[in-house]
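Hi all, posting the design record for the shared folder.

TITLE: backbone redesign
STEP: 1 of 1
STRUCTURE INPUT:
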């Protein structure tokens, strides 16, 4: 971000602000306390207990890591054998936006075509059938797990029926299902969502609850509903350089997020401001790339319009639509205000 960006109204991503004030207060109030390290303190355990309660998994293992790519790389490497790869939508975060972190650990991302960012159960089944029906499959990368995210990279949601279908395929084929929940607060708060944390815990073998993009300074909570799936995960986290010595900092944040429904409230703010923006865009006759119910909005914009708007507003390039138009992304967050949205819409009205 350049110095000029500080003068723009920014809708680039949902991790641009610092943290919710209640988190900062908890960190400040406990700043000089001395606690055990590496997530073994009482604050981390309290956060774990709150997460276990929300997930309906009293025996779940909960591990706090710093960031999403770190969590994905650590979990996927821990789940896969040396000769296995991970099935993902070709638009999946691990396939396009993690700088080859999965491949750097020695595993291949097995990318399948997406439907508005989502994998389909039947395509996963067909891929695995084709693999094992190939007489040469011993020379190929074995599919060893499935990766999905909720919401997807396109801001879309897996319905409960879709998640159940994918989970069933995975269990029939004896491979784990892993959900990336970097933006999970925004999925859970969306009126169109019918998947709860309890559903996720019952249908996924591993998942993480995102904090970095959902009101925390940083941090993700990796949940193993059945800890035996990765019995030495703590050691594996350490081996990957992902174990924070001052683990209390992570635990306190998730303790705050799961107190008085704060996590859900923060998600709701992003959804409400996204709805306000979406309606404003439609009033301005802007073309939505396709409907998205969460906090990411994709707009088809003339290249000249995009260039003009970029002088006063920050948004993300997504993909080229054609020679004259581009798909751009606007993202609201837990901290976006109605006034922010109105300022952006005013800028749009003056540049289209």
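Okay, here is what came back for every position:
SEQUENCE:
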């Amino acid at each position: 971000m350049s110095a000029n960006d500080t003068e723009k109204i920014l809708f680039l991503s949902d991790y641009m602000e610092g943290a919710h004030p209640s988190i900062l207060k908890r960190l400040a109030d406990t700043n000089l306390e001395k606690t055990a390290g590496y997530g073994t303190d009482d604050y981390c355990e309290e956060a774990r207990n709150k997460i276990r309660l929300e997930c309906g998994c009293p025996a779940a293992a909960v591990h706090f890591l710093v960031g999403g790519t770190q969590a994905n790389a650590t979990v996927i490497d821990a789940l896969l054998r040396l000769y296995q790869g991970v099935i993902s939508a070709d638009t999946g975060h691990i396939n396009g936006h993690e700088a080859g972190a999965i491949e750097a650990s020695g595993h291949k991302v097995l990318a399948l075509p997406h439907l508005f960012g989502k994998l389909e159960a039947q395509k996963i089944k067909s891929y695995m059938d084709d693999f094992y029906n190939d007489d040469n499959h011993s020379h190929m990368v074995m599919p060893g797990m499935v990766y999905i995210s909720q919401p997807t990279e396109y801001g879309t949601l897996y319905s409960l029926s879709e998640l159940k279908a994918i989970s069933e395929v995975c269990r029939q084929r004896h491979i784990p299902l892993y959900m990336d929940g970097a933006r999970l607060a925004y999925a859970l708060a969306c009126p169109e969502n019918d998947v709860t944390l309890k559903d996720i815990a019952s249908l996924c073998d591993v998942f993480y609850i995102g904090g970095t993009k959902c009101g925390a300074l940083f941090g993700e909570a990796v949940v193993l509903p059945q800890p035996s799936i990765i019995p030495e995960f703590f050691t594996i986290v350490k081996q990957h350089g992902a174990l924070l010595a001052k683990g209390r900092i992570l635990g306190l944040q998730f303790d705050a997020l799961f107190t008085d429904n704060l996590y859900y409230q923060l998600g709701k703010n992003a959804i409400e401001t996204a709805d306000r923006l979406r309606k404003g865009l439609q009033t301005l006759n802007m073309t939505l790339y396709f409907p998205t119910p969460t906090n990411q909005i994709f707009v088809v914009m003339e290249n000249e319009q995009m260039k003009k708007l970029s002088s006063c507003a920050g948004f993300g390039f997504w993909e080229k639509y054609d020679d004259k138009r581009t798909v751009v992304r606007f993202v609201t967050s837990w901290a976006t205000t109605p006034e922010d949205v109105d300022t952006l819409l005013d800028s749009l009205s003056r540049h289209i």
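COMMENT: The longest strand covers residues 142-149.
Let me know if anyone wants the other runs.
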